Amino acid sequence: MSTIVKHTINLKTLTICATIVCLIALFLYVFEAQKRFKEVSDILAERLVTTEQTVQTISTLSSEIGYGGFIHNFKNYVLRRDPSYKEKAEQNYQRATKQINDLKQANLGANFTKELDDIRYTIDQYFKNLMILSPDLISDQVTMDDRLVKVDDSLAIEGFRKIYQLQSKVTQTTLELAKEKEQAAQHFISYGYILILNILATAALIFALIHRIQTQTHKAERASQAKSDFLLTMSHEIRTPLNGILGLIQLLNVKKLTREEKHQFGLIQSSGELLLGILNNVLDLDKMEKDKLRLEQVPTDLDYLLQTTTDFYKNLASENGLLLNYYSNLQDAGYLMCDPTKLRQVLSNLLSNALKYTKEGRIEVYACVSKLQSQQDRRFCNIKIEISDTGIGMNEDKCEEVFDKYKNNGLGLVIVKELVKLMDGEISLISTPNKGTEFTIQIPFAKATKEELQHHKTKRLNPNHSMSGLRALVAEDNLVNAVVAKGFLEHMGLMVSVAHDGYEATRLFKEKSPDLILMDINMPHLDGLEATKAIRQMSNGHDVPILALTADAFTQTKEKCMQVGMNGVITKPFTFEHFKQRIFDAVA
Q1: Rounded Cα–Cα distance for residues 473 and 527 (Å)
Q2: Could you give the 3-state DSSP secondary structure of residue 91?
Q3: What is the pLDDT of residue 473?
Q4: Which residues are CB-contacts of 97 (< 8 A; sequence separation ≥ 6)?
Q5: Cα–Cα distance list, 208 to 11, 21, 201, 236 (Å)
Q6: Which of 39, 180, 393, 415 is most deeply buried (CB count within 10 A of its CB)?
Q7: Helix (H) or strand (E) holding 426
Q8: Are strands 323-328 and 362-369 parallel, antiparallel or unpaired?
Q9: What is the number of alpha carbons within 13 Å of residue 271 lying toward its C-beta?
Q10: Which has the closest alpha carbon to 12: 200, 208, 215?
Q11: Can you say whether residue 109 is alpha, beta or left, with left for phi > 0 and alpha for psi between -120 and 50 degrees?
Q12: Which residues, in sequence order, are bridge partners of residue 546?
């Protein structure tokens, strides 16, 4: 699964989780809002009930005091001297005082209390006079009693007027507050539902975008896979004949050739190696884009590796009239842990670049041990490699583009930068137009331990080890490659049988019982993987070493070979030394 798809899935999961959390929080928020709205509604309803009760009490109080009430009966009693009016007046007074006390206990405010006190004072005066009024006076005479019971009603009347005003304001305020709170709560709840819809719509939009990204990603992955399949096919189609060319050159006894013929064969081999280097660059770039390029770590004599790689290009430099020199102080650096193939590829690409842009003069390679200020660990050794030329050079703007695969014309320097970065190193360049260019590489290599060196030495080919008399089976449908493999094995002293497909390989294995099998992968009728499975199921096929011969340089091909029981893989094209070492590793 690609990194983009993983990130997309993570984004989708995160969006789902975030949406769920937001919805839960919003539902809780709306639930809490509804709960508070109910509480406010209950409080307001209670206030309204209290207000209604207060209004009712005030109305009753007014009735008990006013017309038909206490003062009315009091005056009727004064005018008519009818004891029944006095009794009614006393009853009105008792009820009125109780209602005044009830209203005061309702805590309606200081203004209400003041007005109630004024009303109480007025009716108390009436009641006091009621108690001292003589019932024996004649109704049509104005006596001292009449003047005595005369009470000023204006204070009570004003009190009632203000109470009605205050109560009216309280009622209006309560109703307005209730309406305002109700509208606010309804709006708040409505906004909450709108927000929920917005969240759902946003989540749907995000999911749509994610789906679109996934669709585009799958298209890009299919295109990338198509490119990889093409590269796999191209690699196989080029490596197969290239193995024949380079292998047959190595089989030739160059000692019998003239100096000119040796030189020409050397150029053929160099050209083939350069073509192989270009092919490796393309494949490595594809692996880098998929983050699948991995480095191996083996004890390596860096001085020998750099020297032999430089020597390989001396013929090409000489052919172009250039001097190519190598200098170093790495003789005492010892064995360092690195990927020799990739380091050789880095130097090869830089030398190819120098040869391409240098028409006259010289190319120099200088390697030394360099101490980085930040590198204090004695387990590491920092190596600096400088490749300088007297070529056409370049300006500063061009220097910034040489490592950019979208702006540079070639892949070599792009591969160099990525490989150096993969080795935890750095690369820089200095260039002057018409004077030349100098690339500087600094890479920290771990020093090989004694255990690593011992393990490496035990795997190396013992030159005194004889393979004479061993039987080998080569399963290869390509005639040229079969000739190369057979020639290499016979040169090592083995007796060789050749099969041209998987069925013939299984038949010859039963007949010859070989000590070693070299198995091509892509063969007609029965491929190498199925043939290996068949051999491993035979009684004498469990332990025989089987090495794959394949032009597929991809990791997945090597993994498939190991899964069916092969002991290793030899990738085409191969040198005789590499071939010989792999054979020794398999049978030793």
Answers
A1: 15
A2: helix
A3: 96
A4: 120, 123
A5: 12, 20, 10, 41
A6: 415
A7: strand 426-432
A8: parallel
A9: 9
A10: 208
A11: left
A12: 517
Nearest to 337 by CA among 453, 457, 460, 461: 453
Rounded CA gap, 33 and 41, in Å?
12
Query: What pLDDT score does 397 carry?
Result: 77
Query: Over the chain (588 residues), what is each successive 10-residue block's mean pLDDT?
Result: 55 71 70 69 67 69 68 74 79 82 76 76 79 57 53 58 61 68 70 74 77 79 75 75 82 72 76 76 72 81 90 85 92 85 90 90 92 61 93 84 67 86 91 92 89 66 67 93 92 92 94 93 91 92 92 80 92 86 84
Report helix, strand or coil for 312.
helix
Q: Give the DSSP H/E element, type plus range, for residue 498.
A: strand 495-499
For the domain made up of 294-459, give the CATH fold.
Answer: Heat Shock Protein 90 (3.30.565)
Angle at 197 between CA 191 and CA 203, to 5 degrees: 135
Amino acid sitting at position 339: D
Q: Within 10 A of 555 (CB to CB), how many other CB atoms are there?
A: 12
CA dist 48 → 45, 51, 161, 178 (Å): 5, 5, 21, 9
State residue 75's pLDDT score: 75
pLDDT at 566: 94
Q: Which of 474, 553, 546, 463 is nearest to 508 (CA)?
A: 474
Closest CA to 527 of 579, 472, 477: 477
Tell me which residue has tokens 């494949």: 283
DSSP state of 137: S
Residue 307 CA to residue 326 CA, distance in Å, equals: 7
Q: What pTM was computed for the model? A: 0.58
Are the CB atoms for 475 and 519 separated by under 8 Å?
A: yes
Task: Kindly report the CATH class assigned to 471-587.
Answer: alpha beta
Q: For residue 174, how many C-alpha atoms fall within 13 Å in the half-sphere facing its CB? A: 20
Decide if 297 contacts 335 (C-beta within 8 A). no
Q: In 66-153, where does DSSP find H-type helix?
A: 70-80, 83-105, 110-132, 144-148
Sorted by where each begins, the domain ranges of the chain are 3-200, 294-459, 471-587
Q: Rounded to an integer, what is the distance from CA 344 to the centroid of its chain?
A: 34
Strands 516-520 and 362-369: unpaired
Contact 472, 496 (CB under 8 A): yes
CA distance 198 to 319: 73
548 φ, ψ (degrees, to nearest 5): -80, 135
- Name the 3-class secondary structure at 385: strand
Whole-Å CA distances, 263 to 267, 272, 283: 6, 14, 30
User: Is residue 138 classed as helix, strand or coil in its secondary structure?
Assistant: coil
Radius of gyration of the chain (CA): 53
How buried is 310 (Cβ within 10 angstroms: 0-12 exposed, 13-18 middle, 19+ buried)?
buried
What pLDDT does residue 38 have?
72
Could you tell me the two tokens for 582?
A: 């792999």
